[in-house]
Amino acid sequence: MTRESYPAAPREETADVLHGIPVPDPYRWLEDPESPETERWLVAQAELFKRESEPQRFKSRIAELLKSGSVGAPAWRGDRYFFSRRTPEQEHAVYYVVEPDGAGGTERALVDPMALDPSGLTTLDAVQPDKEGRLLAYQISVGGDEESVLYVIDVATGTRIEGPIDRCRYSPIAWLPGGEAFYYVRRLPSTEVPEDERQFHRRVYLHRVGTSTEDDVMIFGDGMKMTNYYGVSVSRDGRWLQISASEGTAPRNDLWVADLTASPADRPELRVVQEGVDAQTGLVFGRDGRLYVHTDRDAPRARVCVTDPSRPEFEAWRDLIPQDPEAVLSDFAILDDLDSPVMLVGWTRHAISEITVHDLATGERIGQVPTPGLGSIGSISERPEGGHEAWFGYTDNTTPPTIQRYDARTGETTLWAASPGAVDVPEVRTEQVVYRSGDGTDVRMLIISPASGEGPRPAILYGYGGFGISMTPGYSASILSWVEAGGVYAIANLRGGGEEGEDWHRAGMLAHKQNVFDDFHAAAEHLIETGVTTAGQLGISGGSNGGLLVGAALTQRPDLYRAVVCSAPLLDMIRYEKFGLGATWNVEYGSADDPEQFGWLRSYSPYHHVEEGVRYPATLFTVFQSDTRVHPLHAWKMCAALQHATAGDGPILLRNETEVGHGARSISRTVDLSADTLTFMARQLGL
């Protein structure tokens, strides 16, 4: 393809001068999605993508592998439990309740997104049964915008008794006993905040079921930072209220508790647990009267401490489960219907999950929970009133999601529920390797390849490297389809993630962001040097923060990669704070308003490092028009810049999808997106 065949995109002389340095922005006009110029350009890009796209090679196989469906862990309320499941023919998971009736219980659907909206555009964002299991709060959004609207239904009848309550995006629901009221988080009305701040300004409220939201009492958040996120929970007995506050996505939180027997629910007397401390901490009020503290304070791989609820401050904490030198402590559950109560502790050791058993009184390790294999474990759940059983999700690269049940009386783990669809999963070979990054740091990578034969093969390298999010093994129809067709798929556990604890995260954020890109380049070089693939057969893929990763990779080392899929990316790191939820991420990346931090951002911002005459890899941008987290303008501007600049012969294409957003989507849309991206990679890498 020649550059002349790309849609016309005028380069303007727009530039900002920041801290005395000019910052060109020739495609700023693409920041306005409603301008006629942008609309014409997007139509032309869609026509180009259609002309350049080959017939989807992987669609039927991805769809077949996704017919496994899915299943979620149970939330118990007495003998009644709630869970989610997606059957092979369903577009979205359905949320069910199971009533005890002897044999296996009677199952009823409570929230079915397709019944609410047959178009498939409505997604179920969150659910929370009340403490007795009589009421269910759920949140839905439409078209991918993630602007959750809250409803409450009667579980027995399915009757809607509350809602819609809007402005509830990312809201926890903390029920008080009896189901008469709950705490929740809601944004201020748009009439009370500037237009460009409507995504922010959250507050904690108390809502009494059956009353107008106009009567809700603001509990917390007034006068605090507009980008704060709040967590709120109430202990099972209703005595203890817990409120946390985090500035954006910062890896730290302030924390308060209130005794609701000593102060009223609408005027709780909050007591500081930690404030202004660079650590993340959460509390669990045990049935035994002890307060359990899950924290990375003075323990970057996390630990569990205990104290008395009347003394929640740091000075009273004592270690129960100390920090492990290698594994990251992810969660825990308490089983107390035993002669000697125990704590189950979930860990990830170099991205692989395990669960250990400890004496609840002393913390001494006394055993290990059997797990199905080397994979990922979801959160461990127990009955709120106590018991001897626990449930946890499990998946690995060839196992669709399952729910496992552990019985502490027998020490056995058994399959409680499998994904409902039977699928023929291909045989693959999975290995975890260790390679060395540019500064000598050891980094791990999972390599999934065909069960037989040797390389070099067409390979896709995937990474994320941000926000402390770990890349752990999981079932993926897209990965399995690629490997079954003869390719290799590699997932690097880059700095910036959480695979090795909070220190690992911080080694890839703010001033240290370049470490993430260096780890990724080193992963690519390792795959080439060990004969897994060649530079001409190597593609890279990433989305969101991972889109920033591959955007930086293709501008820093265009020689190293043959093809790129860049999805919902951040790419203009000078102006990212001005759009979507960008203002909540300056705690991860830094702010261009600060001279030093501007220097960090400018050093790698992909959009600002596109140079004319460079042979850039073939690149496919996939973006979602309703994305309210990362605005599609990042990909639009970068696409125009690359189309103008590249001297390479690989195409620069844009797949712009409407009525979907950054997160959940229907299965059919998932299949189409995966098939398009794999088909692009196969064409460019020669699979």
From TrEMBL:
Please report the stretch or stretches of sequence annotated as the Peptidase S9A N-terminal domain. Answer: 7-417
Disordered: annotated segments: 1-32
> Keywords assigned by UniProt?
Hydrolase
Keyword Flavoprotein among UniProt keywords:
no
Instruction: Cite the InterPro entries for this sequence.
Output: Pept_S9_AS (IPR002471), Pept_S9A_N (IPR023302), Peptidase_S9_cat (IPR001375), Prolyl_oligopep/macrocyclase (IPR051167)
**Do the record's keywords include Hydrolase?**
yes
Q: Where is the Peptidase S9 prolyl oligopeptidase catalytic domain?
A: 476-686
What name does this protein carry?
Answer: Prolyl oligopeptidase family protein
Which organism encodes this protein? Nonomuraea harbinensis
